[in-house]
Amino acid sequence: MSRPTRAPPSRYSSQARSCNTSPRRPASFSRRTCAASTRCCSGSTGRWANHFNVYAPQFNPPEGLKYGQDRYSNEVNRLFGVLNKRLADREFVAGAISIADFAIWPWVVGFKNFNQKLEDFPNLKRWFDKSMGERPAVIKGKAVGLELRPKPGINTDEQRKILFGQTASVVR
Q1: Continuous segment of H or E residues that includes residue 159
Q2: C-alpha dihedral (82, 86, 87, 91), degrees to nearest 10
Q3: What is the pTM of this model?
Q4: Which residue in 3, 20, 97, 124 has its CB near the most CB atoms, within 10 A?
């Protein structure tokens, strides 16, 4: 009996386009590494860490949030450690710059909200500040709409109503 094989990514899939291998890529680049790295950090861990450390404290006593804050901040810490180790011998996550770097970089931006210090992860800090942070397109992208970004948080009753007051009845 033959084992089923996994079909290669379609040439139209984002994984195939963004994690492609070509003669221009260095030998250290791996499509599998690129895809795995992207999935590693694009899950919900950052969202939950941000929720428990930034938004929930506005409505709940901090002592009631300790479990969520600890759980997700520790998981972010673990993932930062994985990235730090991965970046020890390379400039970019998958060897050459790839979609993995651009998918992970915005997630790392919130390190302060996750109660993390990039100084604890020197390779990740180098990648964040220099390899990615000094790229002209990243600098330009960060500046877009800067004046429109409010301080994180729920600042008005209207925001609270939208965030916490909606149920299935609003779609009827």
Answers
A1: helix 157-164
A2: -140
A3: 0.69
A4: 124
Domain of residue 64, CATH code: 1.20.1050.10
- Indicate the pLDDT class of residue 23, thresholds 50, 70 and 90: very low
Q: By the 8 A CB rule, do 114 and 76 touch?
A: yes
Give the list of residues 6+ apart from residue 166 with CB closer than 8 angstroms, or none: none
- In angstroms, rounded to a whole number, what is the distance separating the alpha carbons of residues 83 and 38? 11
Cα distance between residue 139 and residue 74, in whole Å: 29
Number of structural domains in the chain? 1
Range of the domain at 104: 29-149
pLDDT in tens, 92-126: 988 888 888 988 898 898 888 888 999 999 999 99
The three-class DSSP label of residue 113 is: coil
Return d(Cα 74, Cα 170) in angstroms, integer.
36
What is the DSSP secondary-structure string of 40-74? HHSSSHHHHHHIIIIIGGGTS-GGGGHHHHHHHHH
CB atoms within 10 A of CB 73: 19
